[in-house]
């Protein structure tokens, strides 16, 4: 007995992904107009009907990671799409045609159209859950992360992160970012009020300082908006440091297209670190994430990141540890544990997420503003008040790999880093923590990176590296050994 569909049938689909398993015992009409992504599981029985259409395939799309229970029926004349990681309960019916439409906010039926003839489509957003026996019909979008409760009939759009129920379906719960909770809704007026307030208080602000990197900024914004669209749980802020290239045109184009983006332009270049500081202060989100304009999100990573932020709302600091991609998410407490977990990689601005209300408690947030590592200071300053942190192991970025001579390598990697850590000795870090990290950073990061700069002729300022090293490490027992290594690296320069 065959448990899953045959390879011959799978080959007929417009797309059939890796690690996808569809039980036999269902029906596909015109599989050539159906696309199935990676990691999909579908129980039988099921029925996919593609109606006569002039549309280019795929007419029905089931994206990566969708999990589909038994009894799903889809009828599509124009488009039906299940985006990533949608969960479908048993005996769900989906069609892009209907004769009535329901306005969920005003709670009333209004004259409908035949959505199939008018070019309508059903889109079920990423991470949505569709309960057992639900019916979805017409020109409908179910928002990202939304829930359609069992036995509901949905005939109109459902906003992101809302729960609907009933026949016809009404909004019964709305996710509220500041409290990270689902609020019960008793009336359409309350729903409209909560949705309006949510637009002003997103869950995550992505803050991008930029200067004269128009092409990289466009790539960065595309990597964000190709995943989130107008999702109001996100806010994107670009602070342009008086760029002289095409940065204003690119940023303004995205700001005009997406309501959750804000673009500001400085009248003059205020410097890199002040611009980072400025864009963070503009954030309205519960959490503030700094983003390098030359760092780009891997597809399918922003909603998992949003879930981590939602699930760890009690943490003052969240760090994305990009050197380990095993997907582990874990929490800890205290500066010593955080230093052990993150080391100098906590200075990477794109890995830094800070809880805004904790950030606002810091009395001197600009204390190390000229160090190039003020973002590191902010993390440890937050942990003086809230010691809880979260680490997310994820290789979720690609990089333009821009090197720079805008700062001196030794001054920043050795002096600035150690100055900030020393500031917290006796305030959460011990001297043993500091001395251990001082040695670890030298051998595991500073010397290897110094060698990389020298051997590949990277654009970087290594002047006085030996002088700064000697000043900071002269009293350490390993001083002479490390100095010999540094000298050999320097002498290997052609």
From TrEMBL:
<comment type="similarity">
    <text>Belongs to the transferase hexapeptide repeat family.</text>
</comment>
<dbReference type="InterPro" id="IPR001173">
    <property type="entry name" value="Glyco_trans_2-like"/>
</dbReference>
<dbReference type="GO" id="GO:0008374">
    <property type="term" value="F:O-acyltransferase activity"/>
</dbReference>
<dbReference type="Pfam" id="PF00132">
    <property type="entry name" value="Hexapep"/>
</dbReference>
<keyword id="KW-0808">Transferase</keyword>
<dbReference type="InterPro" id="IPR051159">
    <property type="entry name" value="Hexapeptide_acetyltransf"/>
</dbReference>
<dbReference type="InterPro" id="IPR001451">
    <property type="entry name" value="Hexapep"/>
</dbReference>
<dbReference type="InterPro" id="IPR011004">
    <property type="entry name" value="Trimer_LpxA-like_sf"/>
</dbReference>
<dbReference type="Pfam" id="PF00535">
    <property type="entry name" value="Glycos_transf_2"/>
</dbReference>
<dbReference type="InterPro" id="IPR029044">
    <property type="entry name" value="Nucleotide-diphossugar_trans"/>
</dbReference>
<feature type="domain" description="Glycosyltransferase 2-like">
    <location>
        <begin position="205"/>
        <end position="379"/>
    </location>
</feature>
<protein>
    <recommendedName>
        <fullName>Glycosyltransferase 2-like domain-containing protein</fullName>
    </recommendedName>
</protein>
């Amino acid at each position: 007995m065959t448990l899953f569909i045959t390879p011959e049938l799978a080959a007929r689909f417009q797309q059939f992904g890796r690690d996808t398993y569809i039980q036999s015992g269902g029906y596909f009409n015109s599989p050539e107009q159906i696309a199935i992504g990676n990691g999909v599981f579908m129980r039988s029985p099921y029925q996919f009907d593609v109606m006569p259409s002039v549309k280019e395939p795929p007419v029905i799309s089931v994206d990566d990671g969708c999990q589909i229970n038994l009894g799903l029926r889809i009828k599509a004349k124009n488009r039906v799409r299940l985006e990533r990681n949608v969960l479908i309960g048993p005996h769900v019916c989906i069609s892009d045609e209907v004769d009535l439409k329901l306005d969920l906010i005003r709670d009333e039926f209004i004259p409908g159209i035949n959505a199939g003839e008018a070019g309508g489509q059903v889109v079920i957003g990423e991470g949505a859950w569709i309960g057992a026996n639900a019916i979805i019909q017409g020109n409908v979008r179910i928002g990202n992360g939304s829930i359609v409760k069992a036995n509901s009939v949905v005939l109109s759009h459902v906003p992101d992160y809302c729960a609907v129920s009933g026949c016809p379906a009404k909004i019964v719960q709305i996710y509220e970012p500041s409290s990270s909770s689902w609020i019960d809704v008793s009336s359409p007026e309350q729903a409209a009020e909560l949705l309006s307030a949510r637009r002003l208080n997103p869950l995550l602000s992505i803050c991008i300082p930029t200067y004269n990197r128009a092409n990289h900024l466009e790539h960065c914004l595309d990597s964000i908006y190709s995943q989130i669209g107008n999702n109001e749980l996100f806010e994107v802020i670009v602070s342009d440091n008086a760029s002289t290239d095409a940065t204003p045109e690119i940023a303004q184009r995205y700001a005009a297209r997406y309501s959750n983006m804000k673009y500001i332009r400085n009248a003059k270049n205020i410097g890199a670190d002040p611009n980072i500081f400025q864009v963070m202060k503009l954030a309205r989100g519960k959490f503030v994430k700094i983003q390098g304009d030359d760092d780009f999100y891997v597809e399918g990573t922003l909603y998992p990141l949003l879930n981590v932020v939602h699930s760890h709302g009690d943490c003052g600091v969240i760090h994305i540890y990009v050197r380990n991609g095993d997907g582990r998410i874990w929490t800890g407490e205290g500066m010593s544990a955080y230093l052990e977990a993150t080391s100098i990689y906590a200075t990477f601005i794109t890995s830094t997420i800070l809880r805004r209300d904790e950030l606002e408690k810091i009395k001197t947030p600009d204390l190390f503003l000229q160090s190039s590592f003020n973002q590191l200071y902010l993390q440890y300053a937050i942990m003086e008040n809230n010691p809880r942190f979260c680490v997310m192991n994820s290789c979720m970025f690609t990089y333009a790999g821009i090197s720079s001579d805008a700062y001196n390598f030794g001054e920043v990697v050795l002096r600035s880093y150690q100055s900030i850590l020393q500031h917290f000795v006796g305030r959460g870090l011990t001297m043993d923590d500091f001395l251990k990290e001082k040695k670890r950073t030298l051998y595991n990061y500073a010397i290897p990176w110094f060698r990389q700069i020298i051997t590949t002729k990277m654009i970087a300022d290594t002047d006085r590296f030996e002088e700064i090293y000697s000043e900071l490490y002269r009293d350490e027992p390993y001083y002479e050994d490390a100095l010999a290594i540094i000298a050999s690296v320097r002498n290997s320069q052609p």
